[in-house]
Amino acid sequence: MADTIELTNYLRERFDEEKIYLMGESWGTTLGVLAVQQQPDLYHAWIASGQMVSQRETDRQLYQEVLALAERTGNTALKEQMVAFGEPPYADTPYPNAVVMGQYEALGQPYTASGLHSQRHGR
Question: What are the DSSP E strand ranges found in the chain?
Answer without folding.
Answer: 20-25, 43-49
